[in-house]
Design brief:
46% of the residues are buried. It is globular, with a radius of gyration of 18 Å. The protein contains ten helices and eight strands. Strands 1-4-3-2-5-6-8-7 form an eight-stranded mixed beta sheet, sandwiched between helices. It starts with a strand and ends with a helix. Helix 3 packs across helix 4, helix 6 crosses helix 9 and helix 7 runs antiparallel to helix 8. By secondary structure, the protein is α/β, with parallel strands linked by helices. It has a single domain, classed as 3-Layer(aba) Sandwich (Rossmann fold). Bound molecules: S-adenosylmethionine. S-adenosylmethionine (SAM) binds next to helix 1 and helix 4.
Length: 295
């Protein structure tokens, strides 16, 4: 594990100063793979299908290392800035604890950790981890412009270098889909979350309305990969990987089942912006009670 703390300097994070539009009421939503047609039909609990997208650590790390210098710019441009609102919604729906510690897994360039940093009390510890050093370095550089220390930790989400129950809140934004073994990543997140602590997963999904989904999929498959690769000046086809990984990632009840199986309960799913993204929030089940109830 490599960790470093960005120098605290004074300032605020404008990204967290205004609230996003309200997402729909929490619920467990349908599985996007039920209705896409070319994808395996799920719609119920069960193990995820073997991924066909190459998510090996070297490939994913190399891809993000390559796009790191233009990652934030590409995000803002391709989402029209909506990604900023989604992170604010995440912080509003899964607020920082009054005291204790927050871990942002797959933190990338730190946008979610920084949004939490702007909202959390001064003595709340904020840790941001990722296995791609160039992404972390950019996060640390951005944090120097804000008034709050964040611990930046270089680590694989499937083997987190933290103690059991170390965190009150664990978050992951647009990262879970990239972890080679989703269940293993979730199990690690469960291990480091305190009983009763919360997990917030912000992830891309596909619109539920057939008409919107059809238009979105056309853009997602035909326009976004070309545009994204050009904007991010990327030779490893990161933006084709984006649409492929989103389309095959479990959503709705299948994702909720994985979250529960990892040791969380009270799973709530909130579609954002027509379901282009989904915020999933869950509570860490009491590990001792789980052990007792399972004999
Ligand atoms: C799409 S970026 C998201 C970054 C950030 N959370 C955001 O909201 O912009 C995905 C990040 O996940 C990281 N990642 C993917 N697999 C990982 C793993 N197994 N362990 C740690 N980080 C991982 C990548 O390095 C990348 O920085």
């Amino acid at each position: 594990m490599t960790s470093f703390v960005a120098e605290p300097v004074h300032g605020t994070n404008p990204a967290a100063e205004t609230a996003a539009g309200r997402p729909g009421e929490p619920s467990v939503i349908a599985d996007q793979t039920d209705t896409i047609g070319k994808l395996p039909v799920g719609g119920h609990a069960g193990p995820p299908p073997a991924p066909s997208v190459d998510k090996s650590g070297d490939r994913v790390r190399g891809m993000f290392a390559e796009i790191a210098p233009r990652y934030d710019f590409a995000n803002r441009l391709l989402s029209g800035g909506i990604d900023v609102l989604w992170r604010r919604t995440t912080v509003r729906r899964a607020p920082p604890p009054a005291a204790g510690a927050i871990l942002d897994v797959c933190c990338g360039t730190g946008d979610l950790a920084l949004t939490y940093a702007a909202r959390a009390a001064a003595d709340v510890r904020i840790v941001a981890s990722d296995f791609c050093r160039p992404m972390l370095d950019r996060g640390a550089a951005k944090a120097r412009r804000h008034g709050r220390p964040i611990e930046w930790v270089e680590a694989d989400a499937m083997a987190l270098p933290f103690a059991a129950a170390e965190f009150d809140l664990v978050t992951v934004a647009f990262g879970l889909r990239n972890i080679a073994d989703t269940s293993r990543g979730l199990a690690e997140m469960a291990r480091v979350t305190k009983s009763g602590g919360r997990l917030a997963i912000l992830e891309f999904s596909l619109p539920r309305s057939a008409a919107i989904r059809a238009g979105y999929l056309w853009y997602f498959r035909n326009v976004l990969p070309r545009l994204g690769n050009a904007v991010a000046r990327n030779g490893s086809d990161a933006y084709a990987y984006l649409n492929q990984s989103v389309e095959e990632f479990p959503s709705g009840e299948r994702l909720a089942a994985l979250v529960r199986a990892a040791g969380f309960e009270s799973v709530e799913m909130m579609p954002l912006t027509f379901g282009i993204a989904t915020l999933t929030i869950a509570a860490r089940a009491d590990a001792s009670a789980r052990g007792a109830s399972h004999g």
